Amino acid sequence: MECLCLFWALEKLNYFLEGCVFEVITDCTAVKSLLNMKIPNIHMLRWQIAIQEYKGNMTIVHKDGKVHKNAYGVSRWPLPNDIFNPSYLPEEASPQLPLEGISVTD
Predict the structure, then answer these.
(1) What is the pTM of this model?
(2) Is residue 69 within 8 Å of 34, Cβ to Cβ?
(3) pLDDT of residue 31
(4) Average pLDDT over residues 51-58
(5) C-beta of residue 47 within 8 angstroms of C-beta of residue 4
(6) What is the DSSP string of 26-73?
(7) Among the ranges 22-31, 75-84, 91-100, which has the highest mean pLDDT value?
């Protein structure tokens, strides 16, 4: 997903980035290894070709998520189990087996 974000950003900011030296700081190791993949799938190959245009001017730096102070915090924030959570599962709807109704016989 972050590889797609980098591809999108480079495509949209091409006018401003052309001829500039810049650095991409990410906590995703896939972004850093994108340019070094030997056999990428079709989407990664497309992104790899587009990103190679900036290879001389762009450096990709991996920074661990714990020390990456300005990481996008909304995606890391845990969601409560309430009706506003897209994966909400009410307590009464959670599947449970009635243990007293199961008998084990030979």
Answers:
(1) 0.55
(2) no
(3) 77
(4) 80
(5) yes
(6) ES-HHHHHGGG-SS--HHHHHHHHHHHTTTTTEEEEE--TTT-TTS-G
(7) 22-31
pLDDT at 37: 79
Tell me what the mean pLDDT of segment 69-74 comes to. Answer: 61
The SS3 assignment for 2 reads helix
The CB density around residue 58, as the number of other CB atoms within 10 Å, is 18
**CA 48 → CA 22, 72, 86, 95, distances in Å?**
17, 24, 33, 44
CB atoms within 10 A of CB 34: 20
Instruction: Please state, in angstroms and rounded to a whole number, the distance separating the CA atoms of residues 37 and 35.
Output: 6
Sign of torsion over alpha carbons 64, 66, 69, 75: positive
